[in-house]
Amino acid sequence: ERKSIVIDFDLDCESYPSLMIIFKFCDSNWNSYENPFLSNPLYNKQTNLFLDKLPLTVKGAVYHFTGSFPNNRVEFHLSGKWMFFITDSQNPNLIFGSGKFFVVDTKMKLNVQVVKESMQGDFGDKSILGRTLSIRTNFVLFDSLFANNVTGVEIIKNRMIEYPIFIDRFTNSPEKYYEWDASKRFSFVARLLKPGNNYRQTDTRNTSKYNTPEVEAKFGEIETSALFSRRSNDHNGGTILTNWQNEYADYHNVVFKFRAPENILKPIFLTGSFCGWKVLPENEMYDDKGLMNLSIQLKRGVYDYQYVTADVVDGKIKNVDWEILEGNYYETVNEYYIFVFYKSTEKGGYDQIIGYKKIITGAL
Fold first, then answer.
1. Which among 87, 147, 201, 245 counts the fewest CB atoms within 10 Å?
2. Cβ–Cβ < 8 Å for 336, 157
3. What pTM does this model have?
4. What is the β-pairing status of strands 45-46 and 19-26?
């Protein structure tokens, strides 16, 4: 957890750009509020961004920006979900980049319990796929808050903001349910959560090995399924970038090569910290004589990533399987971020975060 958000990016352009960053307060579905009491128009923009020039030896970018927020121009006045947009100074609708983050201001304590479980069913030689976790979040609501306004609990695994687990008060199933004593005491339970495996990593910081415009993600290696092999620790879905002032902070076309098991018939996708852990149509790997390939432009650094299978239905990604190519182990170290949402009636009404806790599961 941090008391500020750092926005850091490079730009590849010939002339000095005129940019600004707009911050927007959002509801629980990441839709921004237009209510001026919530959008806070006097303190939601950073204009006239100052950009540094990258070293002349760097290929793939020319300018760099680093900024820390909040500051004297930007404030995050409410607890909840926020987004930022990097835009043209004269045309805010021209968006070059965006991101999501959470602002939490609460003293309500959460008691979180994690239990190892096993799914019922016949998995054959893939019994490891049946290993699951149950996360129970317990709390007692402050006297000043109304029980009927508690909307639910959201759980984020590692950096996977795009794939949250939400337990609301309208769902009652073996996978997700809640308990309430008709007063101030709540429990929200998420079950059948698969711990997965520690992520794969590519590290292109070695300038001797990675010294050409196109490099291999795994130098001299073709990757295969990790279903039955537990990997060592990772960065829990994160990235370590080469410092922008380094003369070797280049961009490469990084080629990922994967030989899939013969029984895998669905499309295979590459995802990781470089794309916010989204499973994107453009990151579907192509088959080159039985070897799956994909090239992505990345700045020199360390990236967590993995391979998944999914269906493509009408151009959309469905039924993502995160474990079939990567394995599923109780010992996997994962970070889970747990948020309690409340429908506040202040300032016209908004989705407020009133409880938060980070837990770490697996072998410590």
1. 245
2. yes
3. 0.95
4. antiparallel
> If phi over 0 gives left and psi between -120 and 50 gives alpha, with beta otherwise, what is residue 203?
beta
pLDDT surpassing 60 at residue 253: yes
Angle at alpha carbon of residue 147, lines to 143 and 150, rounded to 5°: 115
Closest CA to 97 of 111, 83, 79: 83
303-344: pLDDT as tens digits? 999 999 999 998 899 999 999 999 999 999 999 999 999 999
**For the ranges 6-10, 126-130, 254-258, 302-306, which has the lowest average pLDDT?**
126-130
- Indicate the pairing of strand 131-140 with strand 111-118: antiparallel
Please tell me the distance from the alpha carbon of residue 332 to that of residue 233, in angstroms, as a whole number.
8
Give the position of tokens 């000095």. Answer: 16
Q: How far is it, in rounded angstroms, from Cα 45 to Cα 73?
A: 7
Q: 113: closest CA among 129, 133, 93? A: 133
Q: Which tens digit of pLDDT belongs to each residue from 131-155? A: 999 999 999 999 999 999 999 999 9
**Cβ atoms of residues 169 and 151 within 8 Å:** yes
Q: In the predicted model, what is the mean pLDDT of residues 194-204?
A: 97
